[in-house]
Amino acid sequence: MPLTWREATAADLPLLAEWNHQLIRDEGHRNAMTVPELIERMQGWLRAEYQAIVFCAAGEPVAYALYRHDDESLYLRQFFVRRDRRRLGLGRAAITALRHEIWPQETRLTLDVLCGNTAGIAFWHAVGYRDYCLTLEIPPA
């Protein structure tokens, strides 16, 4: 299935925030922000240092990537494939497009994955990312 992509616009904010809300739940994150709060946060990120790409299959949005590029690396903050479109190769195709069509080839690529998100960890390993750092914490009592 061919995958196309485009840069996100302000019109995409409600969709991106809803998908971000689903992503938070899917990965088991503690973030309790509401969709309206996520819209506001996403809007701020896109005005400042982040860019977002929306991926489409048959003209229908199916995934997005939110990232920032600095002098040393490119940090992928969020990546989401619609729940009903997973396990069809769309995530792998989107990462391939990012790596070969959108992102500079000579840039170090980084991302964070929650330790409990075993499906996410497996996906990122499958598309070429390797373990580099583990953050440990003692949560408040």
UniProtKB/TrEMBL annotation:
Protein name: GCN5-related N-acetyltransferase
GO MF terms, alphabetically ordered: acyltransferase activity, transferring groups other than amino-acyl groups
SUPFAM superfamilies linked to this entry: Acyl-CoA N-acyltransferases (Nat)
Gene3D superfamilies in UniProt: 3.40.630.30
Keyword annotations from UniProtKB, A to Z: Acyltransferase, Transferase
Keyword Lipid biosynthesis appears in the UniProt entry: no
PANTHER family: AMINOALKYLPHOSPHONATE N-ACETYLTRANSFERASE-RELATED-RELATED (PTHR43877)
Keyword Transferase: yes
N-acetyltransferase domain residues: 3-141
